[in-house]
UniProtKB/TrEMBL annotation:
Entry-linked InterPro entries: MmeI_C, MmeI_hel, MmeI_Mtase, MmeI_N, MmeI_TRD, N4_N6_ade-DNA_methylase, SAM-dependent_MTases_sf
Protein name in the entry: site-specific DNA-methyltransferase (adenine-specific)
MmeI-like C-terminal domain boundaries: 826-900
Lineage: Bacteria, Candidatus Vebleniibacteriota
Gene3D superfamilies (alphabetical): Vaccinia Virus protein VP39
Species in which this protein is naturally found: Candidatus Veblenbacteria bacterium RIFOXYC2_FULL_42_11
């Protein structure tokens, strides 16, 4: 059992007093360092050796004064000698030390002074021997203490995962695979961490045992590991009296971590070397919340190439749990003041809270939550008892937050095992923090039952069987980011089974299923929930399907939300996901918070609001459902023309030229094609438009016939009966809408434009299915659609393709609330402003619409013209002015509700 910091300080004072007058290196240095380790309650012989032989760069022999492999190198000099020279001499020894044995610290001394070099952080600390007691925490590594700094992108976590990846590869390649390998790796992870922290009473005992007690060829390593695991699983009073002395030093761990019997693994020298290399790493520095996900990724060599892309950063986890409960708990602690009764009651509450992550993966959310609760508890204890008063109490009786308060559901075995183990690791780090804070050592061994992580499918298992809902306080997590078009058949079936066959749920993202499961589970209780979700659940047609169900059937109310932000990290090649966070319950709350992002990659700012609807704005709880016809009296929007041709009726500039070189008669069949890409970028594309063409004219031109034949083959080869049906008319597009005049709207447009560029086209142009078409529309209609008012509607109601707008006629256009009975003068003002926009566009010949509407390159005259148009449209709606898009959206929702009520 490790001694407390207070006792270490007292021993350090006594040590300094004993050695204050010593000066002779040769005579007393060894006794000095034996006493130094004794300050920390350790026997030097178990850790380090004197006069360790080593070869210097030029092959000459050297002798290290004191060497603890992989941890500490000491160079000692007589009083008054140069410590810089001592450090240089110490570093010279590195050339003769194996990489895995290189120290993490160098300590030089001349009896009077001690200078410690931390080679990982490049920090240097020097102090007089008399001040040793003030600096004992610098040597926390000797007893396994390590200050934790939680950095999401800390390379130490990547390096640790890479070491585990190398070990995994070596063991898997030997044929030791599947469940036994997963259990073995998790056990080794625990031992590696325990070796470098204060879990094991003797630091480095696991590494020393492997290094000194196993054959270099690895032939007996599997057997020795099995004996270590059995020892760790056996209470000390139940161990054989004849147990090997080195094995007997290992503590009893329990927690069922080492209970299962595994097949005996077989090792060779290379595998043993990889294990020792893993042992040489400083595992006390890993962040359990981050490392767990990285550890999981080592199982796949492909994902391993991008370590760091497979975890949820602490910043994003805190975005979920801070407004869900941390803020409230911190405020509650502040409200307790110094009242002992209130602090006791609050402590009772903290120790009774239970948490569930129903898609827990490697436990990131649970681990960070556990850490934050333990930090809160430490602050509570400091206020309740005071740091100094704690000396009179048994700290084990005061720490009441336990891993058993945490529950998870995970479909895969390996991450579930990592999650449970990682929570134990975080528990230990928090015990160390408590020990440092109160000056009394506290370690939770043997382990308790730990967090309850169930290996099940969260969508098909009964959550009540994991933890009864009347015992739970909070649900949170990050369910899988799987879009509706990327789900497997099984995943889609799971989703639809929760909504019903006729619900239209097939278009929903996979995360929607967790909302429904949670909504059912929390009925009749006061559980609060929060999920990270793809932002699609707050856009387009998904809103009407998911949130109508949540509102009407389950009475869900949104308590807080983060608007769309970019969920990514610094790992190269990491595909960004655009997310929202939604906190909800089946009861309402007074204080609602909305977190908005001026930059989706930046920080959020909090806004207090009256209500949060599914589009994440301060407006009533309504959903925009599909409409087959426009809400207002405006022209009908339709899809452009789908060729369904395999590309055989479409032509580039070069293909058009070549066709005309073959036969000029083809010219009358070629028309310009308006597709979104070409329309926005000022490029040309063409098509063979054979509507109303006589059959004999088609047959007379071989090149045209050849293309028509290829279209027929393409359609017949399709597995879809609907496509095969159109093989009967292979000369024609599937759709054939060609009005005299129409406004063209690209179906997909960049979110980095203030307006979606639209334009007028006549009968000579064929609008493709990458655009929408509004036949018989006027300049008035163009102006309203090109306005900031319409773009506010688009930005909230429109679906997304990644982050780009994906325009929908049934959701966006047909539900859009147009100005209510605008006067002739107001309509005329919009028409005039619209024409000005079109005229200025025409002035900028050579610039594409993409150039003209890029936020960084939009010409000043076009900016001004749109500002005039925006004002004209705003005036047609109302006399009030709008400062931000949310103001416009609140107004439009109110108008939309009014139109709906009038129709009813």
């Amino acid at each position: 059992m490790m001694i407390s910091w207070n006792e270490i300080k007292q021993r350090a004072l006594e040590f300094s007093k004993e050695w204050e007058n010593e000066t002779r290196e040769d005579a007393e240095a060894k006794s000095f360092w034996d006493g130094f380790f004794g300050v920390f309650g350790l026997t030097r012989r178990r850790l380090a050796s004197f006069e360790e032989p080593v070869k210097l760069l030029k092959g000459k022999p050297g002798f290290i004064d004191l060497f603890w492999k992989g941890t500490l190198l000491v160079e000692h000099k007589s009083a008054g000698k140069d410590l810089d020279a001592a450090y240089t001499q110490a570093v010279d020894y590195f050339a003769g030390i194996e990489e895995r044995d290189l120290p993490k610290y160098v300590l030089v001394s001349d009896f009077k002074r001690l200078r410690l070099y931390d080679l990982e952080t490049q920090e240097q600390h020097e102090f007089l021997l008399n001040d040793f007691y003030k600096n004992v925490r610098l040597f926390g590594f000797i007893v396994g203490y390590k200050k934790q700094e939680y950095k999401s992108e800390d390379p130490v976590n990547v390096k640790a995962a890479e070491r585990m990846g190398a070990l995994y590869d070596a063991i898997a390649e030997s044929g030791y695979i599947g469940h036994p390998l997963k259990v073995l790796l998790v056990r080794l992870l625990f031992c590696l961490f325990a070796d470098d922290s204060s879990v094991f009473d003797v630091p480095g005992i696991f590494r020393q045992y492997i290094e000194l007690r196993t054959n270099t060829d690895g032939s007996d390593l599997g057997a020795h590991l099995t004996m270590i695991f059995q020892t760790l699983n056996t209470p000390k009073d139940k161990r054989q009296k004849t147990l090997d002395e080195d094995l007997a030093t290992f503590p009893y761990v329990n927690g069922m971590l080492f209970a299962e019997s595994l097949p005996l693994p077989s090792f060779n020298s290379a595998m043993r070397e990889r294990l020792l290399k893993a042992c040489s790493f400083n595992w006390s520095r890993i962040n359990p919340a981050i490392f767990g996900s990285m550890f999981q990724s080592v199982m796949d060599k492909v994902t391993r190439r991008n370590l760091g892309a497979h975890y949820t950063s602490e910043t994003n986890i805190l975005k979920v749990i801070t407004p869900l409960f941390l803020d409230d708990l911190r405020q509650e602690l502040e409200a307790c003041g110094k009242s002992i009764s209130k602090l006791n009651s609050f402590h009772d509450k903290l120790s009774s809270l239970k948490f569930l992550d129903p898609a827990c993966g490697c436990g990131n959310f649970l681990i960070i939550t556990y850490r934050e609760l333990r930090i809160l508890e430490i602050e509570l204890l400091k206020r309740r008892y005071g740091v100094n008063q704690m000396l009179g109490f048994d700290i084990a009786n005061l720490i009441r937050i336990r891993p058993e308060q945490f529950y998870g559901i995970e479909i895969e075995e390996f991450p579930a095992r990592i999650a449970q183990t990682a929570i134990w690791l975080m528990d230990h780090q928090m015990n160390e923090l408590a020990s440092e804070t109160f000056g009394k050592n506290y370690s939770r061994l043997p382990l308790t039952d730990g967090a309850k992580i169930i290996i099940e499918n969260a969508l098909t298992t009964t959550w009540e069987n994991v933890v009864p809902n009347n015992e739970l306080a909070y649900i949170f997590g990050n369910p899988p980011f799987i879009g509706s078009k990327l789900m497997t058949k099984t995943e889609r079936k799971e989703l639809i089974s929760l909504f019903g066959e006729d619900s239209g749920a097939g278009v929903l993202d996979y995360v929607s299923a967790w909302y429904i499961k949670a909504a059912r589970y929390i009925q009749g209780v006061s559980i609060k929930c929060a999920f990270v979700s793809t932002n699609s659940v707050t856009q387009g047609e998904q809103v009407s399907i998911l949130w109508k169900e949540l509102f009407r059937r389950y009475g869900i109310k949104i308590h807080f939300a983060h608007k769309t932000f970019k969920w990514s990290n610094e790992a190269r090649g990491n595909a960004a996901v655009y997310c929202v966070i939604i906190g909800f319950a089946c009861f309402d709350c007074a204080d609602k918070r909305l977190y908005e992002y001026e930059d989706i990659k930046g920080a959020a700012h909090e806004v207090k609001v009256k209500n949060i609807n599914p589009y994440l704005i301060d407006a009533p709880d309504l959903v925009i459902e599909k409409r087959s016809k426009p809400l207002c009296e405006v022209p009908t929007m339709s899809f452009g023309n789908m060729p369904l041709d395999g590309g055989h009726l479409l032509l580039s500039d070069n293909e058009k030229i070549k066709l005309l070189e073959i036969d000029l008669k083809i010219a009358k069949f070629i028309k310009p094609l308006v597709s979104a890409k070409e329309f926005l970028n000022g490029e040309n594309r063409w098509c063979l438009w054979l509507v109303d063409t006589k059959p004999e004219e088609i047959r007379q031109i071989a090149e045209v016939m050849k293309r028509v034949e290829l279209v027929k083959e393409f359609r017949l080869a399709s597995k879809a009966p609907s496509t095969q049906k159109f093989s009967a008319t292979p000369a024609l597009f599937r759709d054939r809408n060609n009005p005299d005049s129409a406004i063209v709207v690209p179906r997909v447009s960049s979110e980095n434009r203030k307006y979606i560029p639209m334009g007028f086209f006549g009968k000579d142009y064929i609008v493709s299915d990458t655009c929408m078409s509004i036949p018989d529309a006027t300049l008035y209609h163009f102006g309203v659609l090109e306005s900031e008012m319409h773009m506010a509607w688009v930005s909230y109601v429109c679906g997304r393709l990644e982050s780009r707008f994906r325009y929908s006629k049934d959701i966006v256009y047909n539900n859009f609330p147009w100005p209510e009975n605008p006067s002739v003068e107001k309509v005329k003002a919009i028409e005039n402003a619209s024409q000005t926009v079109l005229d200025i566009r025409a002035k900028h010949q050579g610039s594409s619409l993409a150039d003209l509407y890029d936020l960084l390159t939009m010409p000043p005259d076009l900016v001004k013209a749109h500002q005039v148009l925006d004002k004209a449209v705003d005036t047609a709606y109302t006399k009030r002015s709008f400062s931000i898009s949310t103001d416009r959206m609140e107004f439009l929702f109110s108008l939309y509700q009014k139109y709906l009520n009038n129709k009813d």
